[in-house]
Specification:
By secondary structure, this protein is of the alpha/beta class. The protein has a single domain, classed as Alpha/Beta hydrolase fold, catalytic domain (Rossmann fold, 3-Layer(aba) Sandwich), CATH 3.40.50. The chain is 34% helix and 20% strand. It contains five helices and eight strands. It has an eight-stranded mixed β-sheet with strand order 1-2-4-3-5-6-7-8. Helix 1 crosses helix 5 and helix 3 packs across helix 4.
Length: 206
């Protein structure tokens, strides 16, 4: 269902999934181009949660998705304020989406969380490779880049792919959707992650 939410800076669109009652998960896509590559994958996870009786919301944030704010005017602080305004007890995030939740939540679940400094290094490599002023078509302000350099994900249940050797609460098989050349999906991995998220929420609620 298409809905909207209000935050101190205005109004943004969001998608809702699942039942009207019970715990609500607020989902965060990665920033910039990775959001396009992982949106269908995240929606599949959220539909999987809906079939398991868990509601969710996938908000567009200022400067992201269908927001009317230009990407060049986006700021991490504004995105965090908007994300905090979406009602929900839990957060799930992919990659740099883990940087967006700095508000009070009952619990956080992160898939391959990415520190802000790592994201900035990737963005700089992309810009240098493209020999352009933008970042693979994204106009990003210097102020936003400064915010990102010091940003770290908050503590969470961390899930990583088996190809990632960094510490995690759970490792799972699968290919990184955020590395695809074009947007793609992985129904098997999405179902596996929905199972883990549902079990984690049940444990938190218990």
């Amino acid at each position: 269902m298409i809905d909207h939410y209000d935050w101190p800076g205005g109004r943004e669109a969001m998608m809702r999934f699942g039942p009207a009652g019970g715990p609500v998960v607020v989902a965060a896509l990665p920033l910039f181009e990775e959001a396009n590559r992982t949106r269908a994958f995240m929606v599949t996870i959220l539909r999987g949660l809906a079939s398991r009786g868990i509601a969710s919301a996938l908000p567009d944030l200022p400067g992201q998705g269908e927001s009317l704010l230009p990407t060049g005017a986006a700021r991490l602080a504004a995105m965090r304020n908007a994300f905090a305004a979406v009602p929900g007890a839990y957060t799930i995030a992919i990659r740099s989406g883990a940087l967006l939740d700095a508000g009070a939540r009952k619990g956080r679940w992160h898939l391959a969380p990415q520190p802000g400094a790592d994201l900035v290094r990737e963005l700089e490599r992309v810009r240098q490779a493209g020999e352009a002023e933008d970042f693979a078509g994204n106009i990003i302000s210097p102020e936003f880049l400064v915010e990102l350099v010091g940003a770290e994900p908050d503590p969470a249940r961390v899930v990583r792919l088996e190809s990632d050797a960094r510490p995690a609460d759970l490792t799972v098989p699968g290919a990184p959707q955020w590395r695809r050349a074009e947007p793609d999906n992985d129904l098997v991995l999405a179902a596996l992650l929905a199972d883990d998220i549902a079990a984690w929420i049940r444990a938190c609620e218990g």
